[in-house]
Structures are given as structure tokens and as C-alpha cells.
Amino acid sequence: MAVKLITARYVIGGTGHNGSENVLLQSAFFLMVCSTPSDLQNRTSNGPIGVVDGRWIEPFKNALAGRWLLFHNGEFVTLKGQGYFRVRNEIEYWKKPGRVDKLGFHNVEGKLLHVASGGGRKVNDEWVNEPGRSELGRPGYRSSYLSRGVKPEWRNEYFYLDGIATLTLKEGKDLAAMNYSVTPVTYSEVIKDVETPPDRKHNWLRRGIVLDRC
Fold it and tell me: Which of 121, 130, 198, 207 is deepest in the core (most CB within 10 A)?
């Protein structure tokens, strides 16, 4: 268990952007207790995230694991609720290599936070048991590539939603063929993923990272 001493800042009263009528109180201290070594903030969850609109595919045998599957250009899910969910990606370089862009969230109402990354590897990590292979490509195939300025995503990306947000799969033109799966998860499931130690035999190359620390 990690215990952190935090300095809080509060703004009381006032209107306008210049802060002339605001009273800023600093040096208010409180204790924040984290229950796991990863220090992932445990945000309020009110049941699993649900879908209120969308066009998706139901899970089927040998498909990318997940609850709602986005496999074709323009497929989308509009998520609503208060809790955590996972987006898992699959880059189909064997179908159509191309540019890999960042996740396409839009129409966000409320709070959407990118809280952690896991799945054992980033999309550009080379597999141990197959030199030259990554999620972007493999020997004998043309490889997909990251858009300029886009950081490589992990196999599993975790988000916290308190409100509504839409994720749409975009393909076509110079974009790579892609698949997404979207799945409601619990706080404990996020922790289990990011704290899983490397297992190079199974290409689990990295511990996950926490982006929403308490």
C-alpha cells in the first residue's frame, strides 16, 4: 500500500477568467491511499459501461477478443456510463498495410480519461520468437506504419468514462486495415493487466503503464 502526501489547491468564489475576485487557498494537505503498487487511481464506477448507439459485430469464434467488435470502416459504438473499458487493436497488415492513426474518439460529453496501457507490448515491439515481426507487420508482408507524431499504442488501452463517448473505426485511402474490440472492464482487471510481469516466451514483453496515478 502506498500513502502519498498531496498539496491541494482550492479556488473559492469569484467570476471571470482574470481571477481578480478569486481567493486561492494553498498548502491544504490530505492523505491519498493507493491499494496497489501501480498507484492507479480507483475512480467511481457505477456498473459496467454500456452501449447506447452504434454499428458493430457480435463476438465470434477466433475473432479478436472483446465485447463489441469494430471490423469495417465507419463501424462505431457510443458508450455511456461511469466506469472502465478496454480497447484492443488488431492491425491487419496482411489485408491492407497503411498508416495507423490514433484512436478516433469523438462526441465526448463528460469525462473520458486514458488511464493505462497494457497487453504486454506496444504495436511496434518486435516479437521474441519471430524476428522482424510486430503488430505492424512481419517478414514477407508490407508493413503498416504510424502516422507522423503518433506514439505507438499498446495492445490494450484502458479508459475511464463518466459520461458519453463515441469510438469510430476509420479505414480507407492511405489508412491501414484495422480492427478494434471494446470491452467493459473492472478496476481490478486493469490492475491485473498492467502488473503482469514480462513473459518473453509468450511475447509479453513489458509491464503495463499507469497514466492516471493517485
Answer: 121
CA distance 112 to 19: 27
Q: What is the pTM of this model?
A: 0.82
Burial class (CB in 10 A: 0-12, 13-18, 19+), 105: middle
What is the rounded CA–CA span in Å between residue 124 and residue 155? 10
Identify which of 59, 61, 138 has the alpha carbon closest to the alpha carbon of residue 92: 138
pLDDT in tens, 188-208: 999 999 999 999 989 999 999
Angle at 185 between CA 180 and CA 179, to 5 degrees: 5
| DSSP one-letter code for 194 | H
- Contacts of residue 37, Cβ cutoff 8 Å, sequence gap at least 6: 2, 195
Task: State which H helix or E strand residue 188 sits in.
Answer: helix 187-194
Domain ranges of the chain: 2-34, 50-210
* Strand partners for 164: 80, 109
User: Measured between alpha carbons, how far is 167 from 68 in angstroms, rounded to an integer?
Assistant: 11
